[in-house]
Amino acid sequence: MIEPGDIVIGTLPINLVAEVNRLGGTYQHLTMNLPAEARGKELTAADMERYCAQLEPFFAASQDYARAEVLVGEWDNFNGEYGPERDYAVRSTINTEGVILKLLGENTDTRNMHIERIPGAWRINISMDPEETTMQVSLRDDGQILYE
Q: What residue ranges in 11-84 does DSSP mark as E strands?
């Protein structure tokens, strides 16, 4: 029953935090410096203050699969937008150089995007063929965009 913009506060397991985030909610985790002897016991407000209770925002997502609203197609100058908007799956794989995002959808060619941090910029490699880069874009920290 989570809706975009909802705030969930608690001590949820990671898979439920990911579900809250997937549905558009934000998650605030109740953290405390709780000693072993205080675990599993009812705590008073004074106990929570003594153990430095605080709310911290956390974000979680499955590394392998996420649903996303993705705009596909060419830019429509008349309407000033990409289109049409459809529900697609985005599969991600994390490696030591960055992350690879694969867009999966009905009647859509599979696209891979490899995003990595390089000195002074974020580089995005886009490919239609996993063996070959079709386009490379660098978003530099100084605001310049380089198409390679």
A: 26-31, 54-58, 66-71
DSSP 8-state secondary structure symbol assigned to residue 50: H
Residue pLDDT, tens place only, 50-68 = 999 999 998 887 665 555 5
Q: What is the mean pLDDT of the chain?
A: 79
Percent of the chain at pLDDT above 90?
Answer: 28
Query: What distance lies between CA 74 and its chain's CA centroid?
Result: 24
CA–CA distance, 122 with 74 (Å, rounded to integer): 23
CB 12 within 8 A of CB 25: no
Q: Which amino acid is at 73?
A: G
Pairing of strands 111-118, 98-104: antiparallel
Burial class (CB in 10 A: 0-12, 13-18, 19+), 17: buried
Q: Compute the distance between CA of residue 143 and CA of residue 121 in angstroms, rounded to an integer.
A: 9
